[in-house]
Amino acid sequence: MNPIAEQLNASLDSENPHVLNMLSQLGKELFYPKGILSQSAEAKKSAHKFNATIGMATENGEMMHLDLIQKTLSAYEPKDLYPYAPPAGKPELRSEWRKKIILDNPSLKDKTFGTPIVTNALTHGMSIAADLFVDQQDPVILPDKYWGNYNLIFELRRGGQLHTFPLFNDQETFNVDGLREVLFAQKDHGKAIVILNFPNNPTGYTPHEEEAEQIVSVLLEAAEAGINIVAVTDDAYFKLFFEDSIKESLFSRLANLHPRILSVKVDGATKEEFVWGFRVGFITFANTSSKAVDVLEQKTTGLIRGTISSAAHPSQTFVLKALQSPEFTGQQEEKCSIMKKRANKVKDVLNNQKYHKLWSYYPFNSGYFMCLKLNEVNAEEARKHLLDKYGVGVVAINATDLRIAFSCVEEEDIEELFELIYQGVNDLLAVRS
Fold first, then answer.
1. Cα(420)–Cα(414) distance, rounded to whole angstroms?
2. What is the value of pTM for the model shown?
3. pLDDT tens digits along 256-289
4. Closest C-alpha to 174, from 152, 196, 149
5. 17: cis peptide before it, omega within 30°?
6. Which residues contact 374 (CB under 8 A, 6 or more apart)?
7. Which neighbouring-strand residues pair with 361?
8. Which of 182, 185, 173, 189 is nearest to 142 (CA)?
9. Residue 32 contacts by C-beta under 8 Å, 6 or more apart in sequence?
């Protein structure tokens, strides 16, 4: 093992050995190398004559560039577009995003948590969490309604074992008892990765206050029972809260809660700021030990250096400028209001009694999506039929559930969308009879 990695692990062992035990073997071996980038950083500060350290080109005192590209980006200086961003991300952006996290989650104000590290959107952030903490057969706990990419990230790539529980109980609220049962079943293993994705993809559900308190209570109980917990909050659709759900990330409640709980927040501008193609995400750590958080940030930076080197600089600049703009909050709230109106329209449409014979729907109060539960027709058959006959695209989650992204349907078109789904399902029932 590299001496730098050994030193980082020794620091973790002295500060919080529980966090060291949470790391995968890869996580234990990770470090940020003292190579070209660190030497270049030193040269940037002190090489006042010539700086010939890094593979970039300059011309006439600024970053070399093609005029045809710069003309399309003339609102930005070349220095904010063309150089490599640091592996951990543009420092100003990291600082600005940390301020935003506190603004959006006021209960974090007096808690200890790290500075967000820039990722290539949220998928990359979840992949970093998997690399850091998941080894073969490590239990990854999540509801049975989950984003399918978790299979690739945690199971296929890292060999983790997904353990699911029904998302909803008989009262159609978050199934806290199911979470507790699956989590405590891992007691002999001594470690669990818990994925908390709210607003939930695919159902669009976010817990209410009482449910959130119960989730936190279960995790604390498990930690006190000796289980090391990596609590990963996938906050991809954060801010898109339409009803009386919690409005803060569970990251806030789990931060500094117990030495055996490491809270990991994965979020980003992708969905929150409606800039999907920019690919700007963040990963942030919180634990009772600030030094443990610092070690994890160094290991994460090393992991980024060894994979993508760094995230794209222009996208980081665009997001930074947006966050610094006085118009940002108003414009973001305007778009969130549009999404809320679409969600409310979906509920109004689904109140039509004729639909109740063909399907029910899972509770939803946030995010981009909602899910129908078909009563008699196979979801995949319905999906194909809707696409082939009516030109309607939806996603089949399993044998019964169809995910509907109302985020990409205008409010005035929502009624027609569900009418076509109704017709398509009836077509299949008619063939069957």
1. 10
2. 0.92
3. 999 999 999 999 999 989 999 999 999 999 999 9
4. 196
5. no
6. 358, 359, 382, 400, 401, 402, 425
7. 372
8. 182
9. 4, 87, 298, 299, 301, 302, 305
